[in-house]
Design a protein that fits this description.
This protein is of the alpha+beta class. It starts with a helix and ends with a strand. The protein has one domain: Lipocalin (Beta Barrel). 20% of the residues lie in helices and 47% in strands. It has an 8-stranded antiparallel barrel.
């Protein structure tokens, strides 16, 4: 039985269309995000072959808290550094936490409901903390 190229393409489209309908849309880290308390806003953006994120706004209380821990100013501080895709929809890189003045290995992942979860760990993953960001 010979099948024309057009018929083969039509069959392939019919077979694959249900799979495509359930595929998740590609989500990008790029954009503006706020933390759950709405005290810090960040902008995630491409930087070289990676993704970075910088604080674009902070409430007076967030600025004071960071200042108490030694940060001159929270707004303008790059907190996501060198985040690269991991292949499973997540990103790994470095998270700077201004309130402790340290940088940790971290992971970023966008949830199906378009929230950004940042997770930083120390001592080989023994102690971890997560922060959820909502897209602005």
């Amino acid at each position: 039985m010979r099948v024309s190229l057009r018929t083969a393409a039509l069959l392939a489209a019919l077979i694959l269309s249900p799979l495509a309908a359930h595929a998740a849309p590609a989500q990008s880290l790029a954009g503006d995000w706020r933390n759950a308390k709405n005290t810090v806003h960040i902008r995630a953006y491409p930087c070289g072959d990676a993704v970075c994120g910088t604080v674009i706004w902070a409430s007076p209380s967030a600025e004071a808290k960071a200042r108490d821990k030694g940060a001159d100013k929270l707004a303008g501080t790059q907190i996501f550094r060198e985040f690269r895709p991991t292949g499973d929809g997540g990103y790994t890189g470095k998270l700077f936490v201004p309130t402790v003045g340290r940088t940790f290995s971290g992971r970023l992942k966008i949830t199906p409901d378009d929230k950004l979860v940042g997770k930083g760990c120390v001592i080989g993953g023994l102690f971890c903390k997560s922060t959820t960001w909502v897209r602005l």
